[in-house]
TrEMBL record:
This is DUF29 family protein. It comes from Floridaenema aerugineum BLCC-F46. It comes from the Bacteria. Pfam families: DUF29 (PF01724). InterPro entries: DUF29.
Length: 148
């Protein structure tokens, strides 16, 4: 909030250069917030993909959580005015890689009622396969999804 007040003050003073610096800071903070939210949904998505893989089953609840996580990641990542994205494909993959450890920690508590340690889960699932599955779900186009 103080950045907006500072921006207002700089504009009133006619300090365009200073105002542009603050505007860039605000834009960067906004993008960081979006990335943090995408990360949070990525953890949930990866958690349920890990659970499906290890338990070799799924539930309606897990399926719903996966769909909702994918929808929220897509919604957050889409730039409204430019029809572009905040994170490109490579950055999305990096975010999934960063979120994977947190998802594994959560999975250790939930998979098969918490009987596995993180190190055991690491041997039961392949990180690159789970991340590839998550990325495929996120990048699967809405038009393709609606036609099936």
């Amino acid at each position: 909030m103080e950045e907006i007040l500072e921006l207002k003050q700089l504009l009133l003073q006619g300090d365009i250069k200073g105002a542009l610096v603050i505007a860039e800071e605000i834009a960067e903070m906004s993008k960081k917030d979006i990335i943090n939210n995408i990360y949070s949904f990525a953890v949930v998505l990866l958690l349920h993909l890990i659970k499906q893989k290890v338990e070799n089953r799924t539930t309606r609840s897990w399926d719903t959580s996966i769909r909702n996580s994918v929808r929220n990641i897509r919604r957050l990542n889409k730039r409204l005015k430019s029809n572009g994205f905040y994170l490109n494909l490579e950055e999305l993959q990096e975010t999934l890689v960063e979120a994977y450890s947190a998802a594994l920690d959560d999975a250790a508590l939930e998979v098969c009622e918490g009987i596995y340690e993180v190190r055991e889960l690491k041997t039961m699932v392949k990180e690159d396969e789970i991340i590839a599955s998550a990325l495929a779900l996120i990048t699967f186009t809405e038009s393709t999804e609606n036609s099936q």
